[in-house]
User: What shape does this take?
Amino acid sequence: MLLKLDNVSVQFNERKILDRLDLSVARGEFVVIIGDNGAGKSTLFNVIAGQENPTSGRVVRNFLKITRVMQDPRVGTLGNMTVKENLAFAYKRESRRGWRPCINKDRISMFREKLKILNMNLEDKLNDTVQTLSGGQRQALAFAMAVLVDYDIILLDEVTAALNPESASNLMELINRTVRIDQKTCLMITHNPAHEKYGDRVLKLENGRLYDAGPIKKVK
Ligand SMILES: Nc1ncnc2c1ncn2[C@@H]1O[C@H](COP(=O)(O)OP(=O)(O)OP(=O)(O)O)[C@@H](O)[C@H]1O
Ligand SMILES: [Mg+2]
Assistant: This one.
C-alpha cells in the first residue's frame, strides 16, 4: 500500500470530523472522494498531507513526494507575483537555490508548453500578476504548478469547481491523462457527479468515515 489510514480520528473542539476512518490506497490508483459540504474531505487531505495531526489513529505514508492542489487557488498560488514567477517558484520548490535563476529562455518556453495544454490562454499571460487572473485560470495554474515537480501522489481538492462546464471537462481530461500516463496515484475530491467516472473507485465521506459509493463506469 502506498498510503494507509488506520482508525484515524480528528476532533475540533467537541466535534468529531473524522471518526475512526480507514483508507488504503495502492500505487497507481485513482480514488474519487465525494461527500456533503463540511463532511471533512479537506480535513482528510490535510491529514494525508501531514498538515493536520489526527487526534488518534495512524497514517502510513509509503511515498516520498506528495503534491496538492488546494480547494482555494488563492492558497496555492502567489497573487502578487506573475504567472511565470509562480511557475518558477513551483519548479524550484524542493531546491535550496532560489527560483529567480530558473526564469531563463528555456524554462519560459517549457512553462509556456505546460500552460498551452491547459487550454485557458494562460500561455499569453506569463507576465501578468496572478491576482489579475480569473478564479478558473488561477485554479488551472495551481494544477500546472502542482504537476511541475516530480511526485508519487497527488491530492486534488475540487480543482474544477470554479470552471465553466467546457473548461472543467477539458481540465478533467488533462488531469486524467497526466496521472494515468505517468501512473501516478491520485485522490480527487469532487462535487461534480460527471467526474466520478475518472476514478477506479468512488468513496463517500459520511459521519466521519469513508463508504464505497458503488460501481462506476470507468474511463481510461
Ligand atoms: N482547523 C479547524 N478548526 C476547527 N474546525 C475546523 C477546522 N478545519 C475544519 N474545521 C471544520 O471541520 C468541518 C469539515 O471541514 P472540511 O473543510 O474538511 O469539509 P469539506 O468536506 O472539505 O467541505 P466542503 O465540501 O465545503 O469543502 C467543518 O465543519 C469545518 O468548519
Ligand atoms: Mg473542502
In short: The pocket of magnesium ion (ligand 2) is lined by residues 41-42, 71, 157 (CB under 6 Å).
